[in-house]
């Protein structure tokens, strides 16, 4: 579904990614792990289009997307839930999700500007759809609350609902479990499994190695911007390079 070939990205003197290649199969749950600063978020933002790579190419569903704008990649079916969430703080939870729905709206500019019936029909449909998406992530009860009033863990769920609103084929989740309690992590694992079961391919960046090993079909390990291991969880967790570089006693 997604092929990343030899991607490199520098920020001034920092080599955030060096010749990174990753392949994502349709229907898979692929996890990317690695220490802080390894280049994980940069890799995601290169896939979603916030960063243009210095070298390499990205192919999605058989077409090269390396030079496309983020909105064009979104139209082709790539959605991202950012590590820093990026909700509109003063808007309600539901309105934040409606922002994602609007990319598929069919009313024209004048329908919206003049508030023609077509606009209101679509507005009602969009409100309903946003509510359904919030129900899917367990946040329907809080649909009318301002996003900024929620704890971070719940804001992450809203961000996932907003990403799902674009009806993506590929969903990129950047550290969705960060700051969650053990119970919330269990809920999130179930949610991610349900998303994959619904037919969405998921790439997950995660710090919690035990969560990754239980969830993922395939694990890629980044260190200092390079892929140091890639394979099924059972293989990667025994890779001496991985144990030495990152996981250490946690899975030994
Ligand atoms: P991770 O998500 O694995 O923690 P990042 O991709 O955020 O790592 O960062 C990789 C490296 O690139 C780090 O050294 C970070 O400081 C640097 N970096 C990331 N984004 C930027 C940016 N926009 N400008 C400058 N340096 C950046
Ligand atoms: Mg990161």
In short:
With 252 residues, the protein is of the alpha/beta class.
Structure description:
The chain has 252 residues and is of the alpha/beta class. It has 2 domains: 1-77 and 170-252, Rossmann fold (3-Layer(aba) Sandwich); 87-167, no CATH class. Helices cover 39% and strands 24% of the residues. The chain contains 10 helices and 10 strands. A 6-stranded mixed beta sheet has the order 6-7-8-3-9-10, with helices on both faces. A 4-stranded antiparallel beta sheet has the order 2-1-4-5, covered by helices on one side. Strand 1 and strand 2 (14-24) form a beta hairpin. Helix 3 (93-101) packs across helix 5. The longest helix is centred in the middle third of the chain and has 20 residues, at 117-136. The mean pLDDT is 90. The structure holds adenosine-5'-diphosphate (ADP) and magnesium ion. The site of adenosine-5'-diphosphate has 11 residues, from strand 2 and helix 1. The site of adenosine-5'-diphosphate (ADP) has 11 residues, from strand 2 and helix 1.
Total of domains: 2
Write the CATH fold name of the largest domain: Rossmann fold
CATH superfamily assignment of the largest domain?
P-loop containing nucleotide triphosphate hydrolases
Radius of gyration, in angstroms, nearest whole number = 19 Å
| Count of separate DSSP helical elements | 10
The chain-level structural class is alpha/beta
Distance between the termini: 33 Å
What topology, given as strand order, has the largest sheet?
6-7-8-3-9-10
Q: Could you give a short account of the major beta sheet?
A: 6 strands, mixed
Question: What is the N-to-C succession of helices and strands?
Answer: EEEHEEHEHHHHEHEHEEHH
């Amino acid at each position: 579904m997604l092929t990343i070939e030899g991607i490199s990205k520098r920020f001034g003197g920092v080599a955030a990614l060096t010749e990174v290649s990753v392949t994502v199969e349709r229907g898979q749950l692929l996890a990317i792990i690695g220490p802080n600063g390894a280049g994980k978020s940069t890799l995601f933002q290169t896939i979603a289009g916030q960063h243009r790579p210095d070298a390499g190419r990205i192919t999605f569903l058989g077409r090269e997307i390396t030079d496309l704008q983020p909105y064009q990649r979104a139209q082709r079916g790539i959605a991202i839930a950012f590590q820093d969430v990026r909700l509109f703080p003063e808007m309600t939870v539901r309105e934040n999700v409606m922002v994602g729905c609007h990319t598929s709206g069919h009313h024209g500019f004048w329908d919206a500007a003049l508030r023609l019936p077509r606009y209101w029909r679509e507005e009602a449909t969009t409100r309903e759809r946003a509510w359904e998406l919030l129900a899917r992530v367990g946040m329907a009860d809080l649909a009318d609350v301002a996003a900024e009033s929620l704890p971070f863990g719940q804001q992450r769920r809203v961000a996932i609902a907003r990403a799902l609103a674009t009806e993506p084929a590929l969903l990129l989740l950047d550290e969705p479990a960060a700051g969650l309690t053990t119970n919330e992590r269990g809920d999130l694992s179930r949610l991610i499994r349900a998303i994959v079961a619904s037919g969405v391919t998921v790439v997950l960046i995660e710090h919690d190695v035990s969560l990754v090993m239980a969830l993922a079909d395939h694990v890629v390990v980044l260190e200092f911007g390079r892929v140091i291991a890639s394979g099924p969880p059972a293989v990667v967790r025994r890779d001496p390079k991985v144990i030495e570089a990152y996981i250490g006693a946690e899975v030994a």
